[in-house]
């Protein structure tokens, strides 16, 4: 088993209520916020990407489809719609996991509003995960835990049974001895875009 058996789940269903606009479609360099997030996954060593849509699903799908084509990657990208996206991020994670490849050995849960995370950061997380022995892993920056979250398929049934209020944090609480923290040298893993200041401070 190696990095090529990982299915990435990109959560791109949120409403962006705190910003009052569809933040995922805001410009970010030569693409969009969500486009940069997808590009990083496409350039990494994951085997498949599942994009979970919700709010303004068709607009986001069209934008990300263009990004996937522009990346000229043979990596499969699958789009799924979470009809219950208003229930929160955990519902989107479950939706993505249900659509993931059945032969995936591990799952990477990635947030579409973290556009500054690079393929290199993702690959560093994957490499550490498989070198140490696949369990649960996430990146840290100066001791702060960030995203994306990576876990072995042996936890899949347990994830499905987690309390929606706790979400995926519940998995970390249940298995602190199985968690691998991977230090990285970028604050991108602990920064998402919830407010305009977040966007303006990260935009290239």
CATH topology: Spore Coat Polysaccharide Biosynthesis Protein SpsA, Chain A
Largest sheet: 8 strands, mixed
Cα-atom Rg, whole angstroms? 16 Å
Order of helices and strands: EEEHEHEHEHEEEHHEH
Structural class: alpha/beta
Topology (elements, then pairings):
Layout: E1 6-12, E2 27-28, E3 31-32, H1 33-42, E4 48-53, H2 57-71, E5 77-81, H3 89-99, E6 106-111, H4 119-132, E7 136-141, E8 144-145, E9 149-152, H5 156-160, H6 169-174, E10 179-183, H7 196-202
Parallel strand pairs: 1-4, 1-6, 4-5, 7-10
Antiparallel strand pairs: 2-3, 6-9, 7-8, 7-9
Task: Describe the protein's architecture and organization.
The chain is an alpha/beta fold and 204 residues long. The protein is built from 7 helices and 10 strands. α1 crosses α2. The longest helix is centred in the N-terminal third of the chain and has 15 residues, at 57-71. It is globular.
């Amino acid at each position: 088993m190696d990095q090529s058996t990982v299915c990435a789940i990109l959560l791109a269903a949120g409403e962006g209520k705190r910003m009052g606009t569809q933040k995922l479609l805001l410009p970010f360099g030569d693409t969009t916020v969500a486009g940069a997030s997808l590009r990083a996954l496409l350039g990494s060593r994951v085997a498949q990407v599942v994009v979970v849509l919700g709010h303004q699903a068709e607009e986001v799908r069209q934008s990300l489809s263009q990004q996937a084509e522009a990346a000229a990657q043979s990596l499969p990208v699958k789009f799924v719609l979470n009809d219950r996206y208003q229930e929160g991020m955990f519902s989107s994670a479950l939706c993505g996991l249900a659509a993931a490849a059945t032969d995936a050995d591990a799952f990477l849960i990635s947030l579409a509003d973290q556009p500054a995370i690079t393929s290199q950061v993702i690959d560093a997380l994957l490499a550490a995960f498989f070198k140490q022995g696949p369990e649960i892993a996430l990146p840290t920056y100066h001791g702060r835990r960030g995203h994306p979250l990576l876990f072995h398929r042996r936890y899949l049934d347990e994830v499905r049974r987690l309390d929606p209020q706790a979400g995926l944090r519940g998995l970390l609480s249940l298995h602190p001895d199985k968690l691998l923290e991977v230090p990285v040298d970028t604050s991108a893993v602990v920064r998402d875009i919830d407010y305009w200041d977040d966007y303006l401070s990260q935009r290239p």
